[in-house]
Here is the input.
Amino acid sequence: MAAVPMFALAPALPEIILAASALLLVLIGALRGERAAGLIEALTLVAILAAGFFVVTQGGERVETFGGSFVVDGFARFAKVLTLVGSAAALLMSGDYLRRAGINRFEYPILILLATTGMMMMISANDLIALYLGLELQSLSLYVVAAIDRDNARSSEAGLKYFVLGALSSGMLLYGASLIYGFTGTVSFTGIAQALQGEGHTGAIFGLVFIAAGLAFKISAVPFHMWTPDVYEGAPTPVAAFFAAAPKMAAMALLVRVFITAFPGIVDQWRQIIVFVAIASMALGAFAAIGQRNIKRLMAYSSIGHMGYALVGLAAGTAEGVQSVLVYMAIYLVMTLGTFAFILSMRREEGPVEGIYDLAGLARTQPYAAYGLTILFFSLAGIPPLAGFLAKWYVFAAAVEAQLYSLAVIGVLASVVGAYYYIRIVKIMHFDEPAGAAFTPMAAGQKVIFALASILIVVLMLPGAPGPLNSAALAAARSLF
Here is the structure.
């Protein structure tokens, strides 16, 4: 039996710390104005680290609060650590870029903090109302962050596109939730699972399709991916880096929890949805990125493809499948943060550059950066012996174990096609003539994230190195079943 917490809200302590910190920092910003931007950024990082400490030190047992609508278990703790790492790293490497661009506003770290609070709420949601509260707190913050560069038409356009399409997806999710409630008589995930035990009510399955559509938008999976390339390209680069990291972790964790805990009795029905979305995302991510000339658009299509690969593990519907999703998302987080740390440093004296051909001859002008980026791109392509290969191996193995042979074969073929555009960039860096002056030196935060990511990708493939990650992911996955 789960231990009784010291006080009723103890399981939500990390979220309370983040929310209280956001309120305090708004007050500091209101009193001191833009002069407080640096201080607020530092205090935001402290708040995220404090929340991370309490997440890690929470006991291993499953605990519920808020009448069972908020749950903390092994799965939630694992996903929250990934989300907090994504938020902290994105914030750490964005300060220099924002200062140079003249958009280092004190609101930026506060919005990141509020979005992170929403993500933590999403991960621990145990009913449809908590799910929606967390999702909207995250989304409202992200709409504003996307348009943070108010004087830039592209940034404003990115924010508006994300807002309009996000509102549409939220409406679909709410409609699905209302159908589920109507046909099962409960909003609790456990209650829904009991109501649908042994029979998949047609109306409830219809509602599940709408919920899947709303959540697929949040992880930018096909066919709800259309916002991703435009928002990644239009939003300031630090915002794109944040979008690619933390929100993806939280949305994927929410998707896994909803399907595994609320609909365990109708796996055959929802597996069809996941298989279709996974195949479509892998295919679009592989083929659409080939013609891209902008590095941020390419990373957008890359992220769509990677969400497809992660969904392959979920389609298995087993504890090993969920374990493979968690391992994949952890390795994807490292690869993405490392790559964006470099993209943030793509700057010449006249300003930032985003073209893929601006990387020409990088091996001659900045050899260490070129080798680090080569490691990250080879890993994103899934080329052994790097961690990206390990991630894909796990999800495909889970699919094969669940006898989803066609899905695994399509995934491997999409991976081969996708490798082309990563290797093309490596070829441009190492074999083309330099396209212009060398990039300005990387800022300290960017350098640390880039170096750590490049080293981790290699270290994770050393004998015995993936063991702790696998064990933690398996324990997290089993806590759902």
